[in-house]
């Protein structure tokens, strides 16, 4: 931290307002990143149950684990967009915001009168980010999509799992979370452009595009070899040894990226002669002798516990890792040192742990606010942002525009 830094610095997007029409995961992950960076995020939720994930079990005291995971630091306002008064409120709020984020199917926001064309007339500086499964164009644009569908359609599912077995879904819902990566990148770029041009921009984020973009060297490998890469389990298609190896009490990950690491692995395993063995002295040769090399490593690792192997590989600077469960990963010393778990005060649940912001700066930000209960900030937003009186808010309640 910079000497003399203030503990109340909100973040680089302090003063930026976001009107958030998103729900479930892909969109909320994007607006979460903006909230983490200091933006003020107004999350519009429908009356009744709000964001669909508020009903996703397990639920404690009426609050869903799922909703809590991607809505820290946001403010919840309940508006019924099925009423003309509710739509007008949303338009009024958009006129006071810098950014709109939505993840409805293409065309839905336009039909509500809340698409980019209409909102930007009143607010030409508005940056509008539409996140959808397949994007705003193309033959699949109107098709519903979910994480596993996007994993399958992008080719990612086909390379995940053990050889000769059915493909396995990625444990992390990357097909959705990719929207939380690419959406904020595009939005922040548009904010920078707006400083020069004075105008906003419409952004089209496709989760399918995002997954294809993450294929990286897997795509190039398919073009180079003229065939589909096959699933390798925890192993790498070209690098050996690389993956999970047996221990007395479990498994350990070993990753050999270069020849220099091959030498370190051989030293650690007590077989330094294999470093220069002409059968194994290059990446290509080790790939061709995959089974032999893996057998050499496994023959030694299975005689040690995971803890003993961690100590041994640390000593020889071999890239490695124990395979931690989620609770253990969240409690490990590195996680604690980086303050990646913090406790916050939730309106219903009291003190709860949440995952902290993953981006750090040289000035310390305060703890993020707890995820909001449904409609927690409705009156405050209407009063502070739109300047509505108590009587005007009461009238909106009578019209069932807000709840």
What is the topological layout?
Layout: E1 17-20, H1 26-36, E2 40-45, E3 59-60, E4 63-64, H2 65-69, E5 74-78, H3 84-95, E6 99-102, H4 108-112, H5 116-122, E7 127-132, H6 147-154, H7 174-177, H8 179-197, E8 201-206, H9 207-214, H10 217-225, E9 242-247, E10 250-255, H11 259-269, H12 283-288, H13 290-301, H14 306-315, E11 320-322, H15 326-331, H16 333-337, E12 341-346, E13 350-355, H17 378-386, H18 390-398
Parallel strand pairs: 1-2, 1-6, 2-5, 6-7, 7-8
Antiparallel strand pairs: 3-4, 9-10, 10-11, 12-13
Helix pairs in contact: 1-8, 6-9
Kindly summarize this structure in a few lines:
The protein has 403 residues and is of the alpha/beta class.
Question: Which features would summarize this protein structure in a list?
Answer:
single chain; about 400 residues; alpha/beta; formyl-coa transferase, domain 3; six-stranded parallel β-sheet; three-stranded antiparallel β-sheet; about 40% helix
Mean pLDDT value: 94
- End-to-end gap: 43 Å
Instruction: Assign a percent range to the helix content.
Output: 25-40%
Overall shape: elongated
CATH topology of the largest domain: Rossmann fold
Radius of gyration (CA) equals: 25 Å
Oligomeric nature of the chains: single chain
**Share of residues in strands:** 15-25%
Please state the second-level CATH architecture of the largest domain: 3-Layer(aba) Sandwich
Query: What structural class is derived from the secondary structure elements?
Result: alpha/beta
Helical segment count: 18
Physical arrangement of strands within the biggest beta sheet: 5-2-1-6-7-8
CATH superfamily of the largest domain: Crotonobetainyl-coa:carnitine coa-transferase, domain 1
Biggest β-sheet description = 6 strands, parallel
Number of strands: 13
Unreliable segments (pLDDT under 50, ≥5 consecutive)?
none
Number of domains: 2
CATH class of the largest domain: Alpha Beta
């Amino acid at each position: 931290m910079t000497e003399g830094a203030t503990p109340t610095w909100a973040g680089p997007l302090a003063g930026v307002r976001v009107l958030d029409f998103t729900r479930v995961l892909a969109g909320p992950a994007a607006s979460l990143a903006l909230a983490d960076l200091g933006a003020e995020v107004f999350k519009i939720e429908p009356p009744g149950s709000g964001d669909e994930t508020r009903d996703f079990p397990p639920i404690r005291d009426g609050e869903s684990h799922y909703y809590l995971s991607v809505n820290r630091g946001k403010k919840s306002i309940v508006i019924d967009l099925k009423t003309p008064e509710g739509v007008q409120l949303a338009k009024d709020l958009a006129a006071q915001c810098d950014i709109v984020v939505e993840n409805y199917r293409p065309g839905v926001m336009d039909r509500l009168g809340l698409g980019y064309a209409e909102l930007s007339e009143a607010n030409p500086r508005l940056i509008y980010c539409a996140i959808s499964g397949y994007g705003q164009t193309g033959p699949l644009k109107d098709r519903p999509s979910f994480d596993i569908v996007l994993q399958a359609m992008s080719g990612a599912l086909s390379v995940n799992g053990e050889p000769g077995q059915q493909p396995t879904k990625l444990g992390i819902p990357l097909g959705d979370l990719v929207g939380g990566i690419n959406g904020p990148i595009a939005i922040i770029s548009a904010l920078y452009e707006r400083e020069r041009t004075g105008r906003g921009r419409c952004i089209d984020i496709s989760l399918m595009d995002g997954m294809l973009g993450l294929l990286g060297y897997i795509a190039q490998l398919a073009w180079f070899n003229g065939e589909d890469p096959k699933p390798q389990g925890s192993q790498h298609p070209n690098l050996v040894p690389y993956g999970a190896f047996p221990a007395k009490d479990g498994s350990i990950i070993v990753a050999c990226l270069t020849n220099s690491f091959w030498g370190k692995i051989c030293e650690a395993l007590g077989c330094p002669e294999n470093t220069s063995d002409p059968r194994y002295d290059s990446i290509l040769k080790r790939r061709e002798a995959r089974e032999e090399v893996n057998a050499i490593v496994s023959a030694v690792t299975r005689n040690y516990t995971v803890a003993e192997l961690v100590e041994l590989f640390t000593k020889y600077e071999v890239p490695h890792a124990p395979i931690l469960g989620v609770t253990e990963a969240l409690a490990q010393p590195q996680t604690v040192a980086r303050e990646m778990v913090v406790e916050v005060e939730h309106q219903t649940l009291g003190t709860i742990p949440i995952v902290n912001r993953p981006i750090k700066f040289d000035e310390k930000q305060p703890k993020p606010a707890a995820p909001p209960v449904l409609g927690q900030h409705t009156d405050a937003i209407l009063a502070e942002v739109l300047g509505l009186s108590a009587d005007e808010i009461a009238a909106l309640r009578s019209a069932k525009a807000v709840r």
